């Protein structure tokens, strides 16, 4: 590999890292350097990598690969061994220096580091860990660090990553074992899940030690996450929802991220020619939200998918799709129904539901009261009862879906 300047390496390896979506920092332990010691802070809020904190602030981090060279030949990966892309590789010191330099310039608030596999999984994991170790121990860096770990690496190296990083993640890559075997035969679902199980145990042990001993070191305080590629294999949305729910339950994950497959140059013939609609990725995130925050079971979310194809509808959100499938559960009286039933009403978010529960303690709610708590009541009308509104035959109409489906609008490029 010809010698490259650090700026050239950064251009190549930052671009190569854009396919990795899992870089949230929610749940991170609070640290800062206002006492004059160390450098950096994690007080930025709930999201990093050009995400938004709860108060609306955009927070960013240096998101980069250690190298885009790889000994594996996964069909779906732009950096696979047989891919004809320009290669580059950072040394551990170069990543450390870049992180500190970018932080001092106020460009970033943390580091997200992943890598292709070079030489061996253990060698690559050693380099990744060395970056985090040097930042924490040599420079007392207190900002956010997220490390992508390698399932095939020695467990001691993966454990070392957890001691230095706020969050760790291990990608399951594809939703099904058959898809992984077909598109990434050098990887194993059992090894991936084994590494995730080991990490869960280490995180739980670390949390338990912190409860017992105040001096115990933190171990991946922001937990672990994973990512799966959508649309590269034949997995349906029902398969993906089921797989994600299983991962949450088995490994206590903080997040499952979905990344729509993107066609790559010189692609293998086993890959689809077109990328899936980005709206499919969006609907999967919405279904994930229903399970995590709206108390839906995975089976209920799967029931919103088409019975024949197993795919979630693209024109309406999964919550509305579920409501249309189970009209017998509606209408719901907003003045009497428990909170868990209010959460099932299409068009009502968690904040609106909490506002309704609080307001109805003092007065009987009318439609105009509900309208003030949500963006639009058009989607709500067939599914709710208020003091002055009952949908009567509206819920039983055969053409209900077109009535509640949001109208597609053309966005203006130069809108004021």
From TrEMBL:
Its cofactor is [4Fe-4S] cluster. The keyword Iron-sulfur applies. It holds the Pfam family Radical_SAM. GO terms for molecular function: catalytic activity; iron-sulfur cluster binding; metal ion binding. Keywords: Iron, Iron-sulfur, Metal-binding, S-adenosyl-L-methionine. Residues 60-287 form the Elp3/MiaA/NifB-like radical SAM core domain. The keyword Ribosomal protein does not apply. PANTHER family: ENDONUCLEASE/EXONUCLEASE/PHOSPHATASE FAMILY DOMAIN-CONTAINING PROTEIN 1 (PTHR21180), TYPE II SECRETION SYSTEM PROTEIN K (PTHR21180:SF9). This is Biotin synthase. It comes from Novosphingobium lindaniclasticum LE124.
């Amino acid at each position: 590999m010809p010698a490259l300047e650090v700026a050239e390496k950064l251009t190549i390896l930052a671009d190569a890292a854009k396919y990795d979506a899992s870089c949230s920092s929610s749940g991170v332990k609070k640290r800062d350097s206002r006492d004059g010691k160390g450098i950096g802070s994690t007080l930025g809020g709930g999201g990093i990598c050009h995400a938004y904190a709860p108060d609306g602030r955009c927070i960013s981090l240096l998101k980069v690969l250690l190298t885009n060279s790889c000994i594996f030949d996964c069909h779906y990966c732009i950096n696979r061994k047989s891919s004809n892309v320009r290669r580059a590789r950072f040394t551990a010191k170069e990543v450390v220096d870049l992180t500190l330099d970018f932080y001092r310039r106020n460009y970033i608030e943390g580091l997200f580091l992943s890598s292709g596999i070079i030489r061996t999984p253990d060698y690559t994991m050693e380099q990744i860990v060395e970056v985090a170790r040097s930042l924490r121990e040599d420079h007392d860096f207190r900002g956010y660090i997220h490390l992508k770990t390698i399932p095939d690496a020695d467990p001691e190296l993966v454990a070392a990553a957890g001691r230095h990083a706020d969050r760790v993640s291990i990608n399951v890559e594809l939703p099904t074992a058959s898809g992984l075997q077909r598109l990434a035969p050098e990887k194993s679902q059992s090894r991936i899940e084994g590494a995730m199980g080991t990490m869960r145990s280490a995180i739980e042990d670390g949390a338990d030690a912190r409860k017992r001993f105040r001096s115990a070191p933190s171990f991946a305080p922001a937990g672990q996450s994973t990512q799966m590629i959508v649309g590269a294999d034949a997995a349906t949305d029902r398969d993906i929802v089921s797989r994600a729910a299983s991962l949450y339950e088995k490994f206590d994950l903080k997040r499952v991220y979905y990344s729509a497959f993107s066609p790559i140059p010189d692609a293998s013939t086993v890959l689809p020619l077109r990328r899936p609609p980005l709206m499919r990725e969006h609907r999967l995130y919405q279904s994930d939200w229903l399970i995590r925050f709206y108390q839906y079971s995975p089976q209920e979310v799967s029931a919103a998918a088409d019975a024949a194809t197993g795919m979630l509808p693209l024109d309406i959100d999964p919550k509305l799709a579920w409501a249309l499938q189970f009209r017998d559960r509606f209408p719901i009286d907003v003045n009497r129904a428990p909170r868990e039933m209010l959460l099932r009403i299409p068009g009502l978010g968690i904040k609106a539901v909490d506002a309704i529960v609080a307001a109805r303690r003092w007065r009987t709610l009318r439609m105009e009261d509900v309208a003030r708590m949500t963006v639009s009541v058009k989607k709500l009308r067939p599914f709710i009862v208020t003091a002055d509104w009952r949908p009567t035959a509206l819920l039983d109409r055969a053409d209900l879906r077109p009535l509640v489906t949001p109208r597609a609008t053309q966005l203006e490029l130069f809108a004021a």
